[in-house]
Every structure is written in structure tokens, then in C-alpha cells.
Amino acid sequence: MISACKSKRVSGCCVALLAAAMLAACATDPATNPQDPFESSNRRISEFNEKVDTKLLRPVAVGYQKNVPEPVQNGVGNFFGNLKDVWSTVNNALQARPIDTAETGLRVAVNTVFGVFGLFDVATWAGLQRRSADFGQTLGVWGVPSGPYLVLPLLGPSTARDTVGWTFDNYYNLWNGVEPTGLRNSGTAVRVVHTRAGYLGLDTSLNEVALDKYSFVRDAYLQRRNPKGWKRNLPTDMQENDGSDGSDRFDDETSSGSSPPVEPLAAAAEAEVPVVIEGPPVTYERSDPQENSPADKPGNDQ
After folding, report:
1. Which residues pair with 151 in a beta bridge?
2. For residue 185, which of 277, 95, 297 has the smallest C-alpha distance?
3. How far apart are the C-alpha atoms of 29 and 212, rounded to whole Å?
4. CA distances from 71 to 9, 13, 183 (A)
5. What's the whole-model pTM score?
6. pLDDT tens across 151-180, in order?
């Protein structure tokens, strides 16, 4: 069903590149954050994305979480997560992480064979953890600067580097080789809704605590995509170039290269979920439905 080497749909990739080119053509704003020179344009696009989410995607996600049985939801997440692990294996190898490469590759093998093409996450039960990686991360690991912060129409937060990385992620996504086209499009729509359903409680919390949602999401995204925490397996001389454009935003990180505890910020940033599933590599991770607290259930989101 899946042909990874043919029938690649690249039209979706052009969306991000076109948006990035349009933003780059605009005059830069006198933004207070040097990493966000297009803040005025980014804010307008962010408002558009939020309106689409509020009027279209979120209501569908509420219905999905409320009416679709949890085993089915788990199967959807497991299946697409297994496809994502294939490309993560490649990127872990490109980042010179042999242990993560081996573990992620073994996850794919175990879940594909024993998990019925990934419908069941046998690998996690066996102790094999997911080591997600994307091409934007790979570029950052090897010193490519992040470039300006961008908000892409329907896709959400990104940077110039992550936008380029996303085009590769999208092109090599195995789901793009599925035929017929109707099945591929239907599966993509299900994945979008499934991903969005994982944040029904988080988005409400973000709206309540963030005085400026745009700035909150932007700063969390840039902090999470900082390459310093990704380069632990590279030679010392390579680790000196962090690809972060010389910004001192993350100078409080430890010398070992480990990232500071930014989970609250990162989690809040993930609330801005893309309208299409293969957006820039924010690395959205959906929690299993049964792990949601009662406050995250659709009935309490009204």
C-alpha cells in the first residue's frame, strides 16, 4: 500500500516555502525580539490559524474524543507514530546517535511485525522508548542557524531552518505514498483530528494563564528548538557551533549540553496545533486518551 519511492506529493511542501518567501519579502518590524523580525505578519497569521482552529478543528476534535472508542484512538496514534519512527531512525543516524538510531529502528521492527503494522505499541511495553527526531533538528545539530521565527498559515510556529527541514520531513513521510488518494487524504484528516484531540485541555489552560499568547508560544517554541540540547553525541569542536545565531537566550544551559527544565513552556507551545498534520517539526506528541485528566475531557471544555 505504501510506496516510499514514488507518488510523493510535494505540493504541501511548497506551502511552507511560499509562506516563508512572502514573509521574507516584507519589511522587517522593529520587534523587541531579534529572532522575530516579522512579528507583525506573524501575529496576523497566528490569529488566522487560531480562528480556523476555533471554528473548525477544535469542534471536530471534541466530537472525536467524545465518541470514538479509546482503543480506536490508541490504534490511530500508534499507527502514525510508527510511520514517524521510520524517519526518526534516519535522522537519529544523521545526527550521529547510534544508540537512539538502534532503539528507534528496533521500535519500528517490533511494532510493524508484532504490533500489526503499528496498530499496537508493543515496543513501548517491551521497554523501547520513542526517540523522535526530524530534519530541522538534524540541521540544527550540525550548526545550521535557525534563522527568523515564522508562523506559517495553517501550519503554525516554525523558523527558517525548521521550514526547510519540514519540506524534507513531509516529502519522506511514508504516508504520502499511500494509494488511492482518497484513502491517503482520509487518513491524513483523521490524524489531524487525533492530534488536535490530545490538547483539548491544554489550550484552555494556555488561554487562561498567558497574558500574550503569541509571545508565550513563540518563546517556548524557540527554547524547545534550541540545538544545544541535541548535540550530545557530536565531537567537542562541533558542539561549539550551536546554530542558534549567537543568541544568549539559552546561556543558562549546563555545559553538558542538556536542556533546562522547560516542560511547562514547551507544553504550552504545543497548544497551538497545526491545522494540517504535517506541519513544521514542533514534534507534537499526543498523550493517550486514558491518561487525560477529567478536566481535559470534552464535556468540561465547553
Report:
1. 157
2. 277
3. 18
4. 30, 32, 21
5. 0.69
6. 999 999 999 999 999 999 999 999 988 889
